């Protein structure tokens, strides 16, 4: 995804400041650096404004002024809007998709009858994953699904294909099997020198329940994240969770084998959870969503723990670790804060993101050191 330069007042050309400042000062006689909303609306009707701004920018300014919680507009806000300075979420939503300026207006309730299924889906994604109303509207108008989400569908098809292959090979299918212990993909502590196993164990699953949960969650959460933030960022979070799952198992559950994409799935869940936590006041039913995610994830982790301590006793097969769920979630919380662009980040939030990323890298470094020198 492309990056945009962040424009500050110091970066603005002097000509631009000289051009708009006198016009703004006409409605700011006391030089407070801000004007009331009513005066701002009069400013938007000024002939010079009408003549020099495109319809989209005018509409954005009018939408900002229509916010019932806004009582005034500062000069810095005015300049930011005039120069198209947008939030990170907006830039990510339309990066590489910039088109000619289009007339933009808020979506009206009656418009729903004229929307296609794709448009309704895009608007739902915007509503769930973006916090600013203008960003939601602009993303919904500009998103074209070209290129479409590719990483999550590709990984999902690979996982389903591998599961079908090993089911046919073993001639069995149960809610917790088959477990292809001889596969070159499975993570085994006795073959940890084969580095690819720390990643490719995600292709295997222990039964159709395990597969169904992971596939459903990564589609429902991963594809919308990929639509908003792009495949590279989502892939980075997903693989960070996969690596954290295998390294965590090698440190905390040294006798366990490991299969499944739960590390990556929980990384996506946790990254989305972090986004909800940062923006829950702007999101519809934010607390309810947090509770639902917690209940579903707890049930899955509980099943994994039960499977860990009963499978060996019943079938004589090696135990399957559950640590990947927890380590993947931790990876999603740390890497996700740094990789996924948050909406209107403040300075202390930027520091938090870098500290979280450093924590993840430190844990990975420790786990690698453990595997090389401890065993």
UniProtKB/TrEMBL annotation:
It catalyses: Cleaves type-1 transmembrane domains using a catalytic dyad composed of serine and histidine that are contributed by different transmembrane domains. It is found in: Membrane. Its main location: membrane. It is an enzyme of class 3 (hydrolase). Keywords: Hydrolase, Membrane, Protease, Serine protease, Transmembrane, Transmembrane helix. It is a multi-pass membrane protein. GO terms for cellular component: membrane. One of its GO terms (molecular function) is serine-type endopeptidase activity. Residues 193-341 form the Peptidase S54 rhomboid domain. GO terms for biological process: proteolysis. Pfam families: Rhomboid. The active site is at 262 (nucleophile), 325. The chain crosses the membrane at residues 146-166, 198-223, 235-252, 258-278, 290-309, 321-340, 352-373. Its EC number is 3.4.21.105. It comes from the Eukaryota. PANTHER family: PROTEIN RHOMBOID-RELATED, RHOMBOID-RELATED PROTEIN. Belongs to the peptidase S54 family. This is rhomboid protease.
């Amino acid at each position: 995804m492309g990056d945009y330069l962040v424009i500050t007042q110091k970066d603005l050309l002097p000509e631009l400041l000289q051009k708009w400042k006198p016009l703004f000062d006409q409605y700011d006689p006391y030089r407070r650096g801000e004007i009331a909303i009513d005066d701002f609306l009069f400013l938007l009707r000024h002939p010079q404004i009408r003549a020099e701004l495109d319809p989209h920018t005018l509409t954005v300014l009018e939408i900002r002024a229509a916010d019932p919680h806004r009582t005034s507009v500062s000069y810095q806000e005015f300049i930011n809007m005039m120069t198209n300075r947008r939030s990170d979420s907006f830039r990510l939503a339309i990066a590489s998709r910039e088109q000619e300026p289009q007339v933009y207006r808020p979506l009206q309730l009656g418009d729903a009858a004229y929307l296609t299924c794709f448009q309704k889906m895009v608007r739902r994604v915007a509503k769930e994953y973006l916090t600013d109303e203008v960003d939601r509207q602009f993303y919904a108008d500009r998103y074209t699904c070209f290129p479409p989400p590719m990483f999550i569908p590709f990984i999902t098809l690979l996982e389903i294909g591998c599961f079908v292959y090993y089911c046919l090979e073993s001639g069995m299918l149960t809610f917790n099997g088959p477990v292809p212990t001889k596969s070159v993909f499975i993570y085994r502590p006795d073959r940890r020198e084969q580095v690819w196993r720390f990643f490719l164990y995600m292709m295997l699953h222990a039964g159709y329940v395990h597969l169904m949960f992971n596939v459903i969650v990564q589609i429902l959460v991963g594809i919308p994240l990929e639509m908003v933030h792009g495949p590279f960022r989502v892939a980075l979070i997903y693989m960070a969770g996969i690596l954290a799952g295998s390294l965590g198992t090698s440190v905390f559950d040294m006798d366990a084998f490991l299969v499944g994409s739960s590390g990556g799935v929980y990384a996506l869940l946790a990254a989305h959870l972090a986004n909800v936590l940062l923006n829950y006041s702007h999101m519809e039913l934010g607390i309810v969503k947090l509770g639902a995610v917690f209940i579903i994830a707890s049930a899955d982790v509980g099943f994994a723990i039960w499977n860990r301590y009963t499978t060996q006793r019943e079938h004589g097969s090696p135990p399957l670790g559950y640590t990947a769920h927890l380590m993947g979630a931790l990876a999603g919380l740390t890497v996700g804060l740094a990789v996924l662009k948050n909406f209107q980040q403040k300075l202390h939030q930027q520091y938090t993101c870098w500290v979280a990323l450093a924590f993840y890298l430190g844990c990975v470094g420790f786990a690698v050191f453990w595997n090389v020198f401890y065993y």
